[in-house]
TrEMBL record, chains A, B, C, D:
One annotated GO biological process: L-phenylalanine biosynthetic process
Cross-referenced Pfam families: ACT, PDT
Superkingdom as given in the UniProt entry: Bacteria
Naturally occurring in which organism (per UniProt): Streptosporangium becharense
E.C. code: 4.2.1.51
Record bears the keyword Cell membrane: no
Keyword field: Amino-acid biosynthesis, Aromatic amino acid biosynthesis, Lyase, Phenylalanine biosynthesis
GO cellular component, one term: cytoplasm
Residues annotated as domain Prephenate dehydratase: 3-181
Record-given protein name: Prephenate dehydratase
UniProt catalytic activity: prephenate + H(+) = 3-phenylpyruvate + CO2 + H2O
Cross-referenced InterPro entries: ACT-like_dom_sf (IPR045865), ACT_dom (IPR002912), Chor_mutase/pphenate_deHydtase (IPR008242), Preph_deHydtase (IPR001086), Preph_deHydtase_CS (IPR018528)
Top EC category: lyase
Amino acid sequence: MPKLAYLGPEGTFTEEALRVLAPDAERLPSSNVTAALEAVRRGDADGAVVPLENSLEGAITTTLDELAWGEPLIVTAELLLPVDFSLLARPGTEVGHIKRVFTHPAAITQCRNFIARELPDAVVVAAPSTAAAAQEVSLPGSPYDAAIAARIAGEHYGLVELATGIGDRADTVTRFVRVSPPGPLPAPTGADRTSLVVFLTDDHPGALLEMLTEFSVRGVNLTRIESRPTGDGIGRYFFHFDLEGHVADARVGEAISGLHRICADVRFLGSYPRADGLAPQAKRGTTDVDFAEAAGWLTRIRTGRV
Amino acid sequence: MPKLAYLGPEGTFTEEALRVLAPDAERLPSSNVTAALEAVRRGDADGAVVPLENSLEGAITTTLDELAWGEPLIVTAELLLPVDFSLLARPGTEVGHIKRVFTHPAAITQCRNFIARELPDAVVVAAPSTAAAAQEVSLPGSPYDAAIAARIAGEHYGLVELATGIGDRADTVTRFVRVSPPGPLPAPTGADRTSLVVFLTDDHPGALLEMLTEFSVRGVNLTRIESRPTGDGIGRYFFHFDLEGHVADARVGEAISGLHRICADVRFLGSYPRADGLAPQAKRGTTDVDFAEAAGWLTRIRTGRV
Amino acid sequence: MPKLAYLGPEGTFTEEALRVLAPDAERLPSSNVTAALEAVRRGDADGAVVPLENSLEGAITTTLDELAWGEPLIVTAELLLPVDFSLLARPGTEVGHIKRVFTHPAAITQCRNFIARELPDAVVVAAPSTAAAAQEVSLPGSPYDAAIAARIAGEHYGLVELATGIGDRADTVTRFVRVSPPGPLPAPTGADRTSLVVFLTDDHPGALLEMLTEFSVRGVNLTRIESRPTGDGIGRYFFHFDLEGHVADARVGEAISGLHRICADVRFLGSYPRADGLAPQAKRGTTDVDFAEAAGWLTRIRTGRV
Amino acid sequence: MPKLAYLGPEGTFTEEALRVLAPDAERLPSSNVTAALEAVRRGDADGAVVPLENSLEGAITTTLDELAWGEPLIVTAELLLPVDFSLLARPGTEVGHIKRVFTHPAAITQCRNFIARELPDAVVVAAPSTAAAAQEVSLPGSPYDAAIAARIAGEHYGLVELATGIGDRADTVTRFVRVSPPGPLPAPTGADRTSLVVFLTDDHPGALLEMLTEFSVRGVNLTRIESRPTGDGIGRYFFHFDLEGHVADARVGEAISGLHRICADVRFLGSYPRADGLAPQAKRGTTDVDFAEAAGWLTRIRTGRV
C-alpha cells in the first residue's frame, strides 16, 4: 500500500483528488505543497498528490516552482476534479451573524459574487488552504465565524454547511497531479501528456519563438505554457510546458531533444495519461511509423544506397 | 493634486511605490487590488498604483486578471522597487517567544530560510497583504505575535523591528504600475514598454506561435508573456504580453494591428516609459523612418510609378 | 491601335499568345526577348508579349533577367497557352529522308520521345526559336531538312506538316505575359497575381525564410519562386516571386512593404488578372475589411480610446 | 583508370573541368548532359562530369532535371571553374568579314557587349554547346564564319583565336559536378555540401516555408534553392536544394529525415567536399557532440532517470 503525501489537512480538495487517484493509498497530510513534495524527496512518502492549476485561478505557482527546483520528481498521473465551495460554520451559527470569514485566497476570488451578495459586511481573511480554514473555524475560541471550503472539510471538522455551490461558476475544475520519485514512466496509452521545465540559455529576443518552433516543426502541440521568474530579476523567466504525447513517442522525443540542445536546461517532469483521454491528431509525417521509416531511409542514404 | 488608490493599508510596499511614482498625490488606500482599480473605474480615484509582478514570486495574478476584464484601464507608468522584509512585533516582544506569525503568502515564500532558521516552531498564517498583517499584529488582543512586512508598515502601525533584511534574496524587486482611466498616452521616450491582453480566436495548435510571429516579423521584442485561464475550463488560456516600444512606433502599431486581426480580442493596456530606461535595438528595416519610406514606396508602386 | 513587340519571327507561339491577348494590336516581331523588351523601353512599342515559363521547361530565364535589370517595366496581363509541336518541312520532303532537324532546345526536350522513335538517326540542331527554325528551313539551300515548331509557323513560311502533336506530353502549357511601360495598373479583379523581384541585403542564412515569413504572416500565398544568379559569383542569388492578390490588396501591400524594408531592393513587376481566374482564399483576418478595421482600432488606441 | 563521360565534344569547358577533377580518367565525350548521365546509368562510364550552374546564366536546367528523374545518381565532387570565351575562326578569317557566328546561347548572353560592339551586323546562331559550335565552324563548307567558345576548343578543332576574354564579366564561374552511381559517399571533411531534390506532398500554401523550417530549426544553412516544373502544369514545382554539411552530420541527417517525413519524395543527390572549402559555423546546440549528448539524455529520461 503506497503512502502518498498531499496538501492537507484532511478535508482539502487535494485529499478528494488523492482518494480518486489512489483509493487504497495511505494518506499523509502535509501542511503545504512544499512539505508534501519534500516528503517524497526524503523518502517519507512514496509519492504525493498536489494541485497544479485551476480553471479559474490559473497555475498553482508553488507547485510549479517546487517541481522546477530541488531534487527532480516526475508526474505519473493527473486528475481533473470539479471543485465546489460550501459555507461552513460551527453548529448553531446563522448566516446573518457571520462577521469574519476564513478561507484560501482562491476561494475568495471564486466566491466573489456570493460574498458580495450574502456577506456584504463580513471581513474575509486569507487562510493557507480551505481545509486549514475549516480546521481553524472548528477550534473553540476561533476568531472566525465561518470558513469557505469543500464540503468534505466540513465533515472532517464537524462543521455544518450553511450554503453549498457558492462558487461563481459551476464548472470550475482543478487539475491535480500525482508526483513520484524518478523511476519507470507510465506506459504510453496513445492519449498522454508530457510536462517540462525549460530554462533559456539567454534571454535573447526570439528565444521563445525558437522553443515553440522545436515543437511545431515535429507536429507536437502544446497544451499549456506558463512563465515563472527565475528569481534573478524582473524580466528573467523560465517556462513550464505541457504538451501532447509521451516522451516515448518519436516526435516528442526529438522535439524535447531539440529543446535540450538549444536551452540552458530542460527538466523532464514526466509523461502520463491525459485525464481527458483525448488522443492527439498526428500531423502528416509525425507518427512513430513515419519516424522509423525516415530513420531507415537515412541509414540507407548515408551508405549511398539511394 | 491627483487622488490615487493603492493596495493598502498604509505601510505596504505599494504605498512606497506610489510615493515614488507620484509624490504629491493624495493617497487612497484600498483593501485589495480589485478595490483599488474599481475606485478608478468608478471615478473615485484619478488612478491607482498596484503591483504587477515580483522577481521572486512572479505575476500578481489578481492584477493581471483585473486589467484583463471589466472596464478598460491603461498603464501609464511603471516602477521597479527593491523589496525587503522586516520581522515586526509589538514593543516588548522577543523573537524567542513568537508562536504565530502573520504575513502575505509571498513573504512566506521569500523569507523561507529565515523562518526555518529563526522561527522553526512558529505557525505562519497567510494575510491578505503584508501591511494588513502588520496592522492586525498592532491590534490589542491579536492572535499573532509578529508580522513580516515592509519596515514602513512597522512605522505606520507602531511596531518594532526585530529583524531586518530577512528575505532570502537581497535583490528582490517588485514591479508596480500606475493605472489610469483611458485617455492620452504618455509620449514616446525611445525607451518604452507596451502591455497587451490577447484572447485567441480558438485554441488551435500553433496559435501562440502565430502570435509571436506577428511580433518577430516586425522586429518587436517581447519582455514578458503570462498565460491566464479564461475560466472556461482547464486548457483555455489568454495571454498578457509586455513588449519593447510604444504603440506610436510604426513597428509596434503594425504588429499589434496584426494581432488584432487574427485574434478574438486584443486589449491594449498602455504604452509607458520603461523603468529601466533601456532603449531597444531596432532590427534592420523596422524604424519609423523605414516604415515611412516603405509606405511612400508602396503608394508609388500602387500607381504604377515603379 | 497599340503596337506590341513580341518574340518573333512570325509564327512563334508568342505570336499566337499576342493574338489572343491583344487581337487588334499591331505586331512588331523581335529577334529575341531582349529586343522585344528594349523596344518597349525605347518607346518603339507600346508593350511586348514574351514567354515567362513553360510547364515542362520551366522559367524562361532571359525574360526573368530582362525584367529584373534595366529600366523598369510592368506586367499587365498573362496568358496560359497550350503548346504543341509539329514536324515541318519543305514541300516534297519525306520523313524517312530527314537528316538534319532545326528547332529550339526546349522543343528538343519536349519532343524527345518522338525524335528517338521517328528520327533516330537525325542530327538535331539548336535554333534561337522554333519559328526561326521554320524560317531557316524554308530558305532555299538550307542545310536543314525539317523544323520542329508551331503549326502556325509552317503556315507562315510555306512548310508542310509531316507530323503533328509530337510533344511528349499533350498538356504542355506556356505562360506568356504582356509587359508595359510603368503606368496605371490593371484594376483588382479579386483573382489577381503580383510579380516581384527581390534582392537580399546580404546572403545571411535564413534570409529566404525571413522573406517567406513576410508573406505567410499576412496570409499571402506564393505561386512561384525562382532564384537567379546576381552575376556576382556562385552562391549569390536574387529571387522572382509570384504571389496571389493585387498590390492594392491591404495584405499584399503590407507584405511587400515588409519585404521592401528588410531587403536590399524589391522591384515591383506588376499586378494583373490571373489567367486561370482562381480567387485566393483569404486567411482569417487578412481581408481588406479586416485591415481597415484594425487600422481604425489602432488609431483609437493610439489616442487612448481603449 | 576510371572512365568518365562528359558534356562534349572535346574542347568544352566541361572537359576542362574533368581534367581538373580527374586528371587520370579516361574521357568519354557525350553529345549532351542527358547522354553523359545515361552512360553512367547504363554502366558505360564510371561517372560523369557535367555543369550544374553558372554564375551569370544560373542553373543548367538539363542537369537539374536529369538528376531529379530516372535512375538515381549521386554527386561526389564539385569544381568551380572560371570560364572565359574566345572568338574562334578558320585560319584566314578576319573579324570584319564575319557574317554568321555560331555558339551556345549562354555564350551569346555572356558576350553580349562584345558582340554588340565588334560584330554589330553578324547573325548569331544558337549551338548545342560552345565546343559543338567550334567543331561546326571547323568543317569545310560550314555556313558559319566564327564560333564563340573556350580557347581549348579552338586548339582541338584547328581554329585561330581572333579575340580572347570577350565575356562581359571577367569573373564568371561555372560549377561542375562529378556524378557517380550510387555507392559509398565521400567522407565528411568538415566543409561539405549536400544536394537534394524535394517533391512536395501537395502544393499547399506554406509548404516551402515548412521545408525551410526543417532546415533552420536544426541550424542547417541552404546555399542554393532552385524550383523546377514537375511537368504537371504551370504552378507545380519541385525543388533542388544545396545545403551546408554532410549527410553524416547529425543536424543534416535529422533535417533531411524531417523533410523525408513531410514531403512526397526526397531524392538524396550526395554529400561531397565544397569546392570553396568553407566550413559552416554551427549554430549553438547543433554539433554532432550536442546531438549525441541530447540522445543520451533522451535515453535516460525515457527510463525515468531524470
